[in-house]
Write the structure tokens for this entry.
Amino acid sequence: MSRSEIPRALRGREWLNHTERLSRTERAVLLAVVVFIVGFDVIGLTTSDTGSLDRIVSIVSTLTLVLYIWSPLIATLALGVVTGLALTTVYASTAMMAGALATILLMRLASPSLIIASFSGILLVLAIVSSGVGPSTVAPSELAIFTFIGAVSGAVGIGLRSAYARGRRLEYQLDQRKEHERQAIIAERQWIAGELHDSIAHQLTIVSLHAQLLDDAQMQDTSQEAIRTAARKALSDLRFIIKLAEAAPAGTEIPSGDLQSAISEVSAEFQGAGHSIDIEGDPRNDAIPRGAEIILARVVRESATNILKYAGPGEVRFVLDVGPEAVTMTICSPLSKDSTPRVASSTGTGLNRMTERVLGVSGEFSAGPVGNEWQVRTHLPFYPSQEDALNDDPAPHLTG
């Protein structure tokens, strides 16, 4: 997934660019800590005769932490006000301890501007306390402890914020991946439905029409032959489509193939590059099963890329030989006299793809120099015999 596909708030470098919210678990932990501290101070306030104001400052400053559940800005302002008031008394250390603990919430939730402002306020408080201005007295050792606690709390807050941001990014990416897989499944179903309609519906229509003529003595032999031929082609097309769908990786878009359109398209490209074109055979021959046509159209397009890259000047020939059991297509292009042989100058990626596609449907594929030409030959068998096609049960191929 590219960076542009991830919302800004979820990107790793920008995880601090917005205000966060505590999770349900974090809220429960925060409330439990606040209740424990406040409860301890209340018990001390009711059982002790000394230090009552210290306990009150501790209770008030601790309760301000609860405001982080709703608004980090309001909570930070409230804690700042409490700390500022505490500096006018001798109980500043109690408020400073709450401020040090609040650093974890500040770094976990606040926006960058609030974090910068808060640390400016913290530095100001440290400067006031260290200078001895006012009645507040905090020992240097206490300042060191508060600073250490604040640093540790801030580090924990950053860690929690980063972990939650990473979790959201992963969740978003998983959701996107599921959506892509769902779209791929829909596209595959639409492709299968379209191919079945284009290839098999035509053959079944022929079967239906000739089945109505079987009672006609004059048309009986012709209709039986037409039904056998149509059934054979329908089963052949079905097998090709199933094999293509099974061989395609998950999420791969499987384009439809139209041999005539593919040859016409690349012929225009060849002519634009200065090649003359010769086509032997009929790409629109109805005897070519739909599945075979898909494979041949792919081979044509893959070969065209290599021809435009490496072929020398001259004629490009397409030779189609359609038989009762197989179809053979040979694409011939002139070798370039100014370059090294094709195999040495190419990575072979296109050839490998064509080989995999043809061999995946039990065909034969070869590519290489023959005389002064580079020949790409594709041989795709239909079925060994009509009887095998008619007696073969395609059901096993339909089960996953």
